[in-house]
Amino acid sequence: MIRQLTKKTFDAMHEESMKSPLFIYFETPLCGTCKMGKRMLEIAVQSLEQNDKEFSVYECNINEFPALARTYGITSVPCLTVLRRGVSVKQVYAMQSAAHLYDLLMKNAR
Amino acid sequence: MKKIFSAAVLALLLTSGCSSGDRLQTSGGEKEVITKELTIPWNVASDSKVWWIAERGGQIVSIDKKTKRKTSFTPLLLKTLHDNGEGGFLGFELHPDFPTVPKAFAYYTYKNQEHIYNRLSELKLKGGKWEETKPLIDGIPAGAIHNGGRIKFGPDGMLYAAAGDAGVPETAQDGSSLSGKILRIEADGSIPEDNPIADSAIYSLGHRNPQGLTWDAEGRMFASEHGQNHNDEINEILPGGNYGWPIIEGTESKKGFIPPLIHSGAETWAPSGMIEDDGILYVACLRGEKILKISIAEKDAVTFSEGNGRIRDILMEEEKIYAITNNTDGRGVPKKGDDRMILIRSSLK
After folding, report:
1. Exposed e or buried b for every residue in A26-48, given b needs 16+ CB within 10 A?
2. Where are the domains positioned within chain B?
3. How far is CA B1 from the centre of its chain?
4. Which CATH superfamily does the domain covering B2-16+23-345 fall into?
5. Within an 8 Å CB–CB cutoff, is residue B189 touching chain A?
6. In Å, how far are B210, B263, B283 from B271, measured between CA atoms?
7. For testing the chain B interface, which of A8, A14, A72 should be mutated: the one with the most B CBs within 10 Å?
């Protein structure tokens, strides 16, 4: 399941990243590529859950967190970031395919 | 020869440089109060025109070197500063190309939900305001005590940070925790390829509460560290080195752990900021209320300067040595004008 990142859930998400890496998908509402990318991400996350692998994945409308783009080093949307101990350690801009995202989540979840 | 000459000059100054009745009495050269009425100053950094002092309560104070004019900045932080106990706005280091590159780095304590952390972040000076742009290392465990906090660029261009054990000694030996460690990153936050542990910012481990970092002309790195019940240490830091806390300290030794270059034994130094000059380490001491002069080769420590109370940090530029006092931090006895930045040594002559 992909959870919505809001101002209310931000601190809890930050805290969660201190214990294990998590993923944030940044998008904007009117971005077509973002919608395609999110569909791929949903398929990847569902496949992982079916295999009993639980990763924390958030989606975030960057318009609601304009300062986060600089804090997490995001230059465009869509962007999937890996947040480890409060720091954005990886930014992925080309979603490519659900299979690609599946591998990416698996590889960076540790 | 140069070393022998310098040592001789310093020895002469130690014996002849004092005059009675001088509140800023030190061991060498003329003395001067650069600025006063600082509030818990923790770190002093310098560019060609300005001294930059970080105060634990979250202020950055700039002092014009020519006019001595003081200006206060409240940096806009991404997280709310948590300046309880020994935590707060601690280390502050300018970008090596400042002010051409208007960036600096800060190590500060904050609270997130029920947990407190330290983070090392990049700051930017824009339109006369300092603001935090991004954390480079986050999730460094914090506590009411032992937050470490000193950050310095090494001669290799890497940014080093001293992290304390946050009051949980065993974490200093835990390779998965950032507490009780000296950390090393690139200025952009990435992990250097030649760090001793792959994909980790950890450079050395087994530290209790390191608060001073410096390097000599040969690139050897030294750190000061508060011991438990005395046994304060000055260590030569080697990549991947384990300095033993909490398994050994002071005179104790055990295979696999690096003993200190020198320790305080039964005396308390409470060492903080430090600098190196010509084979000599000058160490700011809090509880010890002095500046120590330690010969690296001889491994001996003598008092270089005292009478100004607690000293938190020390800076050398050209031949001048400056220090910041720390008498307003709740553990000292503030005198009128405290805390102050003072000139301790005006020159070697």
Report:
1. bbeeebeebeebbebbbebbeeb
2. 2-16+23-345
3. 30
4. TolB, C-terminal domain (2.120.10.30)
5. yes
6. 8, 10, 6
7. A14
Candidates A99, A98, A65, A59; CA nearest to A79 is A59
B117 vs A contacts (CB less than 8 Å) = 18, 86
Alpha-carbon radius of gyration of chain B: 19
Kindly give the confidence (pLDDT) of every residue in chain B, 349 residues in length, as a single tens digit, with 9 standing for 90 and above.
444 444 444 444 443 333 333 344 444 434 799 999 999 999 999 999 999 999 999 999 999 999 999 999 999 999 999 999 999 999 999 999 999 999 999 999 999 999 999 999 999 999 999 999 999 999 999 999 999 999 999 999 999 999 999 999 999 999 999 999 999 999 999 999 999 999 999 999 999 999 999 999 999 999 999 999 889 999 999 999 999 999 998 888 999 999 999 999 999 999 999 999 999 999 999 999 999 999 999 999 999 999 999 999 999 998 999 999 999 999 999 999 999 999 998 877 5
Phi-psi region of B43 (alpha: psi -120 to 50; beta: other; left: phi over 0): beta
Q: Which residues pair with B42 in a beta bridge?
A: none
Tell me the CATH class for A2-108. alpha beta
pTM for the whole structure = 0.92
Distance CA A86, CA B112 (A): 11
The answer for B347, left when phi > 0, alpha when psi is -120 to 50, beta otherwise, is beta
Does residue A102 belong to the interface with chain B, where contact is any CB pair within 8 Å? no
Whether A12 has its CB under 8 Å from any CB of chain B: the answer is yes
With CB atoms and an 8 Å threshold, state whether A87 touches B112: no
Sketch the domain layout of chain A as residue ranges. Answer: 2-108
If you measure CA to CA, which chain B residue comes closest to A72?
B134
Rounded to an integer, what distance in angstroms lies between the CA atom of residue B163 and that of residue B183? 7
CB contact under 8 Å between B139 and A18, yes or no, is: yes
| Contact criterion met (CB < 8 Å) for B117 and A86 | yes
Q: Is B76 on the interface with A (CB under 8 A)?
A: no
Contacts of B135 in chain A (CB under 8 A): 71, 86-87
Residues 69-88 of A with CB under 8 A from B: 70-73, 85-88
Residue recorded with tokens 């300062």: A67
Tell which of A13, A16, A18 to mutate to test the B interface (max B CBs under 10 Å).
A18
